[in-house]
From TrEMBL:
Organism domain of life: Eukaryota
Protein name from the UniProt record: Endonuclease/exonuclease/phosphatase domain-containing protein
Length: 159
């Protein structure tokens, strides 16, 4: 697993994000330096043909805004937990709220055709920017950071 957090003024990195896969036999994750922050997003690469029948390519798509709203409205802020039974009950309610929220905010989407990739020139610019950010994170040499930030702000056509 690759690190996902690179503190600006600290030499070490940490793995803060992880994921699990269900019903797929192949897949991996990549920590991507696509944001101008010290926290990298994680990309999940899966082979959707590995365990799905050839007739249907279904994936679940979660509306995370809806999920957050449901969680916000359903989980109490500070439940009373003085006994072991109350702790167990709070855990059960919490688990139920999470499960309900994910079920209510997730829909199944049928995939037809191949996934689209960004154009090669955009992927190349992202790769250069990532290298500059990584160099800055290792060396703290300001020109690397300035160049990476400049590439981050530039639109895909380079204008």
């Amino acid at each position: 697993m690759e690190p996902t957090h690179f503190p600006y003024h600290h030499p070490s990195s940490n793995t803060l994000d992880f994921g699990t896969m269900k019903n797929f036999s192949t897949g991996n994750t990549t920590s991507m330096n696509d944001l101008s922050s010290d926290h990298n997003p994680v990309a999940f690469h899966i082979n959707i043909n590995s365990n799905l029948s050839s007739g249907s390519k279904n994936i679940n798509v979660t509306n995370w805004k809806t999920f957050c709203e449901l969680i916000h409205n359903s989980i109490p802020g500070n439940p009373k937990m003085d006994t072991e039974a109350e702790i167990d009950e709070a855990i059960q309610k919490f688990t139920c709220c999470i499960t309900s929220a994910i079920n209510l905010s997730t829909r199944t989407k049928v995939i037809s055709g191949p996934f689209r990739q960004p154009p090669k020139e955009i992927l190349s610019k992202i790769k250069i920017k990532n290298r500059l950010r990584k160099l800055y994170q290792i060396t703290f040499f300001p020109p690397y950071k300035r160049k990476a930030c400049k590439l981050q702000k530039r639109n895909p056509k380079g204008h």
